[in-house]
Task: inverse folding
């Protein structure tokens, strides 16, 4: 996680909104947040925790919110922008806000806690929380990334259990907790074993011998089945032959019954045959003549009725034609007056047009009366404007025209003169400061050179000599330490017995441990004293280098400022010469000259604007006057046009006397009269046309009726002759075919008999009788038909059923046995597979049982956690041993408890809690850095962040310098470290920092060193 920006308002001492921009701070690698005690330094970390996790280190998010909010603020607002994820590639925003209750200011409403992600140029809300985005809980975040006051040594003070649990959660070691998975697999294996065992218990009777016995039974049944099939086939053949004979026998009996039935119907068929014959004769020879006679009688009666109707219509048509001819004469007379009536209508339309033109003439006269006065008024206004324009143009010509270029040049000179004089003054002041700083740095360098001993050429040779002195002392200490190592075996020396090292039996002067320990302590003190002296020399070298670079920068900057001063002085001299040429001696005269030119220019500009405005108004008035004159001409022309059209329309009237009274009437009344007369003319034409058409139709109907009367009379005479002829022919045919009784003959005509059906029935009877006699003869000729016995047939049927039953039983037994063999074979194969699976499952269960025993109680997780802790300890020792000058190192035992190896005391172990405050800080720092490094690798980030708010006040100056060298070295490891402290000496070690100051009125204020 890398911070980007923190906006904080209303939290603790932050009354006003303050923003901490981390981009430039984190770019430096090492930065600080400094301020006096109580200024609000630690509140920055509190704000980050509140934005990410919704609670602070000091107070809870619920119940104690009122103590978080600044007493003079109405709301609490934290916006924290940060980068996280793989390689810290994704940007997020954590927001926390809370407001005071409107009714009760002592009460703080529930806070709103939301997260956003930056996508496609905008913030989008996300459901993920800080633990998901950063990958760690709040407790671990405070132990690896941001370490608040009082929490720095918390990781060391944890007991082994919580410390192992922290490692599990931080590095995801729960993936090594295989106890549940192993138990689940063991349960599955046990259940599978029980299932296989149950299935095998059901297959105890399945064996190879049982399969062979079933195969032998199958072969024996197969032979029995073949014998039964042969017997069944012979019985079926005999039965089918007897079945055919029985079928013929039954057909013979059936045909005999049919013959008896046919003989009983023979007399009935003969009667039908006689009736059919008479019906055919009457229908064929007599019925056509009788039908023609009846048709002729019907036509004769119909035509007689038509003659009567036509004679009646003859009188009616004559009367209607005479009436229509009289009405047509009257309509012809009325239409002959049409042209005169239409001429009067045209004259009335002219009257309407004249009345409309007279109305337009009156409107035109009114327009002429209003346009002329308007034109006169516009002409007078134009003359007044022309006089004003002449006066203004005369004033413009008499006024002086200032030089615009000169005015611009003078204004530019005023601006440049003031600016360059200010710049020159600032540059001289800065140059003086550079010279003073240069003198101060030179004095410091001389003071440093004055500290070099007379026998040393420079600081480098002095430091080299000091290192040689320290190396010499360390060699002497090593000799004493080796001697001290033998002291551990001095108690083994017994007078008269050989030494375990040299073998001598004489021990005149054994080693005394007290003298050696005293000498070691003296050597250690001497070495430490010389090292401190070396540190002072190295500090002088570093300070000399820094002062040399600073001096060079000051000299270079001083030269640049001298060049700038010379440039500005040259520009000022050139500007003064130009002003002298313009007879402007000082700024007062320059301002007066500019004032005169500006006033003259403003006066001419105002005159030009007034002339332009007046000319524009004059042009607008002239255009309006020309437009009014054009409208007057158009109105006069239209007025004359109306007069001409009125005279022309009056001359076109044909009957002025008739039209004269209508000039005084309303136009609408004239139009109504024209419409009525026009409609009457059109109706007369339509009625005449309709009447003539109707008269023609009636005359045509009259002619047709006379023609029909003549035709019907001729047809009556013709039909009377036909009726007499058809009657004579019918009487002759009755005698010829023997039908003396005419009524009986007519009944035959009306008989409902179906001739074709009766003929078909007779022929079918004859055919069926012939076929029956023929079939009886054929059946009697077949062998065995007449000698057929039903008892023999039943006996053969019973034998066939017995053979079928026996064969079916054998087949069913054979099928069942075959299916049993198939099932038995499959079960035998299944049993073999189950035995293999059971053996494999039993072996797997045994292995899983052993693994389950090993993984119980998170044993494997604790083992992996201890490995992580050892790696953490090894990583921390790389820095811790350097900080302690190889005198101390960290170790962790099997119970995950931290120990310290004290090399100044023979490498003996002691608890970490026995360290001093400064040493504990160093150990905590190294462990925290190592833990943060592991988290960085876990999150696959190319850069990591570490914030520290504790412990610097507990270190001496030498330890503080070593710690800061360690922190500075982290920049080369792509690590960002932030520190919070009130120690003023730290500001000299940190190049980039934030300064927090507590203002009594505005609260905590944030400022930067850059």
Result:
């Amino acid at each position: 996680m890398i911070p980007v920006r923190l906006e904080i308002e209303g939290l603790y001492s932050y009354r006003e909104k303050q923003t901490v921009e981390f981009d430039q701070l984190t770019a430096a690698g090492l930065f600080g947040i400094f301020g006096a005690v109580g200024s609000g330094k630690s509140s920055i970390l509190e704000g980050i925790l509140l934005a990410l996790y919704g609670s602070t280190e000091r107070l809870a998010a619920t119940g104690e919110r009122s103590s978080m909010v600044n007493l003079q603020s109405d709301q609490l607002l934290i916006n924290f922008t940060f980068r996280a994820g793989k390689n810290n590639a994704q940007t997020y925003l954590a927001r926390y806000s809370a407001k005071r209750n409107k009714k009760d200011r002592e009460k703080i409403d529930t806070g709103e806690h939301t997260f956003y992600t930056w996508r496609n140029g905008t913030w989008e809300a996300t459901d993920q929380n800080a633990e998901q985005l950063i990958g760690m809980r709040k407790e671990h975040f405070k132990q690896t990334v941001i370490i608040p006051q009082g929490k720095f040594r918390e990781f060391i003070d944890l007991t082994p259990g919580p410390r192992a649990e922290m490692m599990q959660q931080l590095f995801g070691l729960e993936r090594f907790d295989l106890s549940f998975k192993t138990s689940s697999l063991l349960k599955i294996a046990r259940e599978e074993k029980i299932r296989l065992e149950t299935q095998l218990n059901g297959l105890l009777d399945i064996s190879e011998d049982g399969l062979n016995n079933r195969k032998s039974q199958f072969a024996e049944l197969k032979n029995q089945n073949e014998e039964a099939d042969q017997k069944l086939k012979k019985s079926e053949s005999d039965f089918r032959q007897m079945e055919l004979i029985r079928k013929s026998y039954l057909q013979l009996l059936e045909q005999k019954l049919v013959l008896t039935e046919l003989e009983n119907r023979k007399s009935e068929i003969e009667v039908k045959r006689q009736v059919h014959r008479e019906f055919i004769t009457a229908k064929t020879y007599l019925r056509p003549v009788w039908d023609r006679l009846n048709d002729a009688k019907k036509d004769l009666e119909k035509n007689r009725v038509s003659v009567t109707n036509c004679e009646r219509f003859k009188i009616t048509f004559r009367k209607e034609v005479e009436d229509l001819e009289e009405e047509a004469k009257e309509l012809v007379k009325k239409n002959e007056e049409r042209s005169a009536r239409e001429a009067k209508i045209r004259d009335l339309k002219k009257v309407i047009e004249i009345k409309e033109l007279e109305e337009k003439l009156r409107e035109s006269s009114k327009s002429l009366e209003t346009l002329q006065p308007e034109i006169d008024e516009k002409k007078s206004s134009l003359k007044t404007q022309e006089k004003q324009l002449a006066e203004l143009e005369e004033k413009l010509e008499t006024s002086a025209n200032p030089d615009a270029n000169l005015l611009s040049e003078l204004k530019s000179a005023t601006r440049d003169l003031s600016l360059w004089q200010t710049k020159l003054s600032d540059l001289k002041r800065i140059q003086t400061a550079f010279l003073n700083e240069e003198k101060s740095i030179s004095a410091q360098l001389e003071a440093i050179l004055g500290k070099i001993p007379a026998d040393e050429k420079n600081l480098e040779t002095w430091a080299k000599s000091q290192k040689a002195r320290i190396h010499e002392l360390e060699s002497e200490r090593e000799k004493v330490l080796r001697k001290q190592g033998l002291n551990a075996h001095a108690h083994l020396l017994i007078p008269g017995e050989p030494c375990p090292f040299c073998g001598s039996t004489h021990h005149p002067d054994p080693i005394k441990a007290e003298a050696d320990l005293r000498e070691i302590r003296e050597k250690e003190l001497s070495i430490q004293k010389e090292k401190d002296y070396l540190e002072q020399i190295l500090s002088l070298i570093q300070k000399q280098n820094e002062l040399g670079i600073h001096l060079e920068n000051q000299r270079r900057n001083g030269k640049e400022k001298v060049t700038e001063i010379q440039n500005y002085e040259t520009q000022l001299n050139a500007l003064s010469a130009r002003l002298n040429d313009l007879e402007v001696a000082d700024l007062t005269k320059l301002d007066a000259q500019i004032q005169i030119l500006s006033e003259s220019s403003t006066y001419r500009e105002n005159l030009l604007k007034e002339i332009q405005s007046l000319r524009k108004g004059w042009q607008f008035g002239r255009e309006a006057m020309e437009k009014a004159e054009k409208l007057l001409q158009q109105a006069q022309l239209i007025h004359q046009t109306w007069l001409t059209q009125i005279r022309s329309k009056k001359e076109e009237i044909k009957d002025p006397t008739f039209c004269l009274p209508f000039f005084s009437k309303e136009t609408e009344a004239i139009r109504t009269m024209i419409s009525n007369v026009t409609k009457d003319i059109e109706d007369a034409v339509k009625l005449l046309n309709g009447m003539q058409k109707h008269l023609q139709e009636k005359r045509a109907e009259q002619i047709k009726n006379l023609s029909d009367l003549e035709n019907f009379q001729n047809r009556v005479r013709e039909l009377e002759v036909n009726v007499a002829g058809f009657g004579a022919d019918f009487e002759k045919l009755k005698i010829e075919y023997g039908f003396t009784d005419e009524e009986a003959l007519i009944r035959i005509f009306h008989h409902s008999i179906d001739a074709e059906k009766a003929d078909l029935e007779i022929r079918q009877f004859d055919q069926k009788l012939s076929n029956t006699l023929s079939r009886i003869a054929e059946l009697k000729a077949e062998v065995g038909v007449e000698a057929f016995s039903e008892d023999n047939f039943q006996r053969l049927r019973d034998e066939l059923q017995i053979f079928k039953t026996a064969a079916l039983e054998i087949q069913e037994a054979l099928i069942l046995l075959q299916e049993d063999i198939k099932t038995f074979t499959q079960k035998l194969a299944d049993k073999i597979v189950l035995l293999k699976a059971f053996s494999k499952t039993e072996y797997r269960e045994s292995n899983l049982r052993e693994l389950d025993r090993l993984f119980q109680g998170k044993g494997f997780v604790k083992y992996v956690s201890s490995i992580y802790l050892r790696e953490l300890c090894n990583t921390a020792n790389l820095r811790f041993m350097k900080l302690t000058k190889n005198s101390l190192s960290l170790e962790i035992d099997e119970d995950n408890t931290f120990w310290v190896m004290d090399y100044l005391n023979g490498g003996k172990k002691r608890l970490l809690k026995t360290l001093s405050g400064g040493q504990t800080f160093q150990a905590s720092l190294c462990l925290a850095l190592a833990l943060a490094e592991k988290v960085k690798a876990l999150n696959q980030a190319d850069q990591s962040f570490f914030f520290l708010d504790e412990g610097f006040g507990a270190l001496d100056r030498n330890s503080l310098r070593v710690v800061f060298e360690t922190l500075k070295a982290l920049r080369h490891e792509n690590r960002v470290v932030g520190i919070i402290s009130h120690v003023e000496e730290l500001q000299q070690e940190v190049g980039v920092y934030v300064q927090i100051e507590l203002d009594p009125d505005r609260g905590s204020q944030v400022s930067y060193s850059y």
